[in-house]
Design a protein that fits this description.
With 386 residues, this protein is mainly β. The chain is 11% helix and 39% strand. The protein folds into three domains: 85 residues, Sandwich (Immunoglobulin-like), CATH 2.60.40.3780; 101 residues, Immunoglobulin-like; 138 residues, L,D-transpeptidase catalytic domain-like. It is built from four helices and 26 strands. It has a five-stranded mixed sheet, with no helix packed on it. A four-stranded antiparallel sheet has the order 1-2-5-4, with no helix packed on it. Strands 9-11-14-13 form a four-stranded antiparallel sheet, with no helix packed on it. A hairpin with a 2-residue loop joins strand 13 and strand 14. Pathway: Cell wall biogenesis; peptidoglycan biosynthesis.
Length: 386
């Protein structure tokens, strides 16, 4: 009796199982009567920077891409609602921005596309660009279209200290129309110069690109904009002054071009010497005012002045010292010429022309922001951050 009842219950259980199976198979859906889920579109739109990105770099162009489909409309707008300029590639699979992003801004994506399966797909959302702790300005010299002498360095200056010199220097590039060996050297935490190993070849064309926008140059400091310049090296002209000779010689392409009697800094006082070293013409001033209260003169006007250092030395006219020009060194460090000679030299000179001084007791101090040629090549290269 006990065994029969057990067998009967087992039979009921099996029967119930059959009944359930038969019921689930009636509608053929395999999901308890629920309709099948719709297939997702094959196409996928992605963007760089990604949606919801924070501290996105501003130097890289925004890109919107679609996989397994085509883009039908792409809009990237800035916080003012203005569209960022950009264009699609011919295949309509990639949209690339053609303008730079701004620092510390939120941009909005609205992109649509169609998959290879004909289904629509879209991308929406926002991203935020990096917010600098400080934005500073950079400049480059020489400026566009300048023609300069064979000793002219390229100089990039920043209006605040650069703490990551490697990052800043890595963004700098010098291209030349002739093969020129050169290197960058940091003269201070606000200035980096590029000079050739030897004087520039005459008539070299130079392009400098400083892609500094978007570069963190240390402690969250960024540069306001890229800076570039294109300039030309002129003819080869070098001035040579051996101070005891009282003669200033001018050479063109290695041959003597002109010779002018001169009076240089006082030989007996190293503080008044015209110091030894290779300098360059830094400025050309038709008239200049000279002051040195220590030595008893102020507001002295001289003509045809070419500054050759920030230490105070010039090549200039000094008719008041005519009796000593070509005979004695009596100046306070400048190279004095007769007025007619000073005018001839002034007219012949280019900014960046080398001026080589020898024969003095004193050396030019390396404190000027234009002291590139006072260093030998190995010392100069050691000032590079890379």
């Amino acid at each position: 009796m006990f065994q029969r009842r057990t067998a009967f219950k087992a039979a009921l259980a099996v029967g119930a199982g059959v009944a359930v199976a038969g019921c689930s198979g009636d509608d053929g859906g395999g999901s308890g009567g629920q309709p099948p889920a719709a297939e997702a579109p094959k196409a996928v739109i992605t963007a760089e920077p990604a949606v919801n990105a924070k501290d996105a770099p501003v130097a890289n162009p925004v890109t919107v891409k679609v996989a397994d489909g085509t883009l039908t409309d792409v809009k990237v707008t800035n916080p003012e609602g203005e569209a960022v300029k950009g264009e699609l590639n011919p295949e309509k699979t990639v949209w690339t921005a053609s303008e730079q992003l701004g620092y510390g801004k939120t941009y909005t994506y609205a992109a649509k596309g169609t998959g290879s399966d004909g289904k629509p797909v879209e991308l929406t959302g926002t991203f935020d660009t990096v917010k600098p702790a400080k934005v500073i300005r950079a400049t480059v010299n020489p400026g566009d279209d300048a023609e300069v002498g064979v000793g002219m360095p390229v100089s990039v200056k920043f209006d605040a200290p650069v703490t990551d010199r490697k990052a800043a220097q890595a963004a700098l590039k010098v291209e030349t129309s002739k093969d020129v060996e050169g290197a960058w050297g940091w003269l201070s935490d606000r200035q980096v110069d590029w000079r050739p190993r030897e004087y520039w070849p005459a008539n070299t064309e130079v392009t400098v690109t400083a892609k500094l926008y978007g570069v963190n140059i240390g402690k969250g400091v960024y540069v306001k904009a890229d800076v570039t310049t294109k300039f030309k090296i002129g003819r080869n002209q070098v001035v040579k002054v051996n101070t005891p000779d009282h003669v200033m010689k001018v050479y063109r392409n290695g041959e003597q071009y002109a010779s002018y009697p001169c009076s240089n800094g006082k030989d007996a006082d190293p503080n008044l010497n015209t110091p030894n070293g290779t300098l360059i013409v830094m400025t050309k001033e038709p008239t200049s005012i000279f002051d040195n209260a220590r030595y008893g003169y102020t507001d002295v006007k001289k003509k045809w002045c070419c500054r050759i250092s920030n230490h105070g030395e010039y090549i200039h006219e000094n008719e008041e010292n005519r009796a000593n020009i070509g005979k004695n060194n009596t100046s306070h460090g400048c190279v004095n010429l007769l007025e007619a000679d000073a005018k001839k030299y002034f007219d012949s000179a280019l900014i960046g022309d080398p001026v080589e001084i020898t024969g003095s007791k004193a050396k030019m101090p390396t404190t000027s922001d234009v002291m590139d040629w006072l260093l030998d090549w190995e010392t100069w290269k050691s000032k590079s951050a890379l």
